[in-house]
């Protein structure tokens, strides 16, 4: 695949819908111990309703996971992960939702794809389970390759880098080559820089500042910054403590707008509505940036979609 050049050239993932802007991936963690929303969706019926609510708020696809990847989290066994994930995947797919499964286990990926998932989002990029790449290749499913240096415990919690962008690029490139050699088609790959995984806040910020270099790998880019620790560090007052995860949604939406403007294929978020608005604004600005002056024929720039009517039937007021 040739390198993606302009920000509006986000690339297309074979086997998935094509959106005309940065897509929004909503998160449903079917876990009791996620760093951000542990326990909120632990009941399968509640999780399905939660996923449908995310779609109603503007999510284009929903990522369902049954195992926390926060630092120090204990792994659940295969049977428990399947028990958590499969009813939710099946329920959302039955409602026509585009479903991604967030798992590091090949067996879970295989069964989730059979239950209706259409994308496998593996934070290890296939490194945690050697059967993952063959399973995904056999299914012909799209696959997210995230930058990963191991489970977040002990020394792997903190990454050591001399050149974080260059090293992440090199390691992602090597992993992409291995995945393609394993049989997954290049046009079904998405890359993810792995913000917060074996990285300090300054590493995450530098990676966000250089998304253009990541996109030069030539694959659609997923940015998963939602509520992560580096945002808490940015928001903390001097000498103060970072705000809790659920108070980082405005900062998440800001990153979503930045990522969308720099050509990300999708952003993965817990709180959808603000990010859905943010990526649409970023898309409108990109359209205005690339449009020739007077393109509408009356000397004005193209306008965004007309506001929806208010309660009285008149268009919503624009300030």
Name the descriptors.
eight-stranded parallel β-sheet; single chain; 10 helices; 319 residues; 11% strand
Could you give the topology of this structure?
Elements: E1 23-29, H1 44-56, E2 61-65, H2 78-94, E3 99-102, H3 106-115, E4 119-122, H4 132-139, E5 143-146, H5 164-181, E6 189-192, H6 201-209, H7 211-215, E7 222-223, H8 229-235, H9 249-261, E8 266-269, H10 272-290
Parallel strand pairs: 1-2, 1-8, 2-3, 3-4, 4-5, 5-6, 7-8
Helix pairs in contact: 1-2, 2-3, 3-4, 6-8, 9-10
Indicate the overall shape: globular
Overall pLDDT, averaged? 87
Q: How many H/I helical runs?
A: 10
Strand content: 5-15%
Provide the spatial order of strands within the biggest beta sheet: 6-5-4-3-2-1-8-7
Terminal Cα span: 43 Å
Structural class: alpha/beta
The largest pleated sheet is described as: 8 strands, parallel
- The percent range for helix content is 25-40%
Poorly predicted tracts of residues:
34-38, 301-319
Number of E-type strands = 8
Which value, in Å, is the CA radius of gyration?
Answer: 20 Å
Order of helices and strands: EHEHEHEHEHEHHEHHEH
């Amino acid at each position: 695949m040739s390198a993606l050049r302009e920000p509006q050239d986000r690339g297309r993932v074979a086997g998935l819908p094509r959106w005309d802007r940065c897509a929004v991936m909503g998160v449903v963690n079917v876990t009791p111990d996620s760093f951000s929303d542990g326990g909120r969706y632990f009941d399968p019926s509640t999780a399905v309703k939660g996923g449908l609510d995310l779609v109603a708020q503007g999510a284009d696809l929903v990522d369902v996971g049954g195992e926390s990847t926060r630092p120090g989290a204990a792994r659940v066994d295969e049977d428990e992960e399947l028990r958590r994930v499969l009813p939710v995947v099946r329920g959302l797919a039955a409602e026509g939702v585009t479903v991604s499964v967030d798992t590091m286990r090949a067996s879970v990926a295989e069964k989730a794809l059979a239950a209706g998932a259409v994308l496998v989002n593996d934070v290890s990029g296939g490194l945690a389970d050697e059967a993952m790449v063959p399973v995904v290749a056999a299914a012909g499913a799209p696959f997210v390759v995230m930058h990963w240096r191991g489970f977040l415990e002990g020394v792997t919690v903190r990454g050591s880098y001399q050149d974080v962008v260059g090293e992440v690029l090199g390691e992602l490139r090597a992993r992409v080559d291995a995945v393609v050699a394993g049989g997954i088609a290049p046009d079904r790959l998405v890359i993810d820089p792995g913000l917060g995984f074996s990285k300090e806040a300054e590493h995450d910020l530098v990676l966000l500042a250089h998304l253009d270099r990541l996109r030069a790998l030539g694959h659609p880019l997923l940015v998963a910054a939602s509520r992560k620790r580096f945002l808490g560090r940015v928001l903390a007052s001097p000498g103060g403590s970072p705000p809790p995860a659920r108070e980082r949604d405005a900062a998440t939406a800001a990153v979503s707008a930045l990522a969308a403007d720099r050509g990300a294929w999708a952003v993965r978020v817990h709180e959808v509505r603000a990010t859905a608005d943010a990526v649409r604004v970023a898309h409108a600005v990109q359209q205005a940036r690339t449009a020739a002056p007077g393109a509408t024929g009356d000397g004005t720039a193209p306008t965004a979609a007309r506001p929806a009517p208010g309660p009285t039937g008149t268009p919503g007021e624009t300030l």
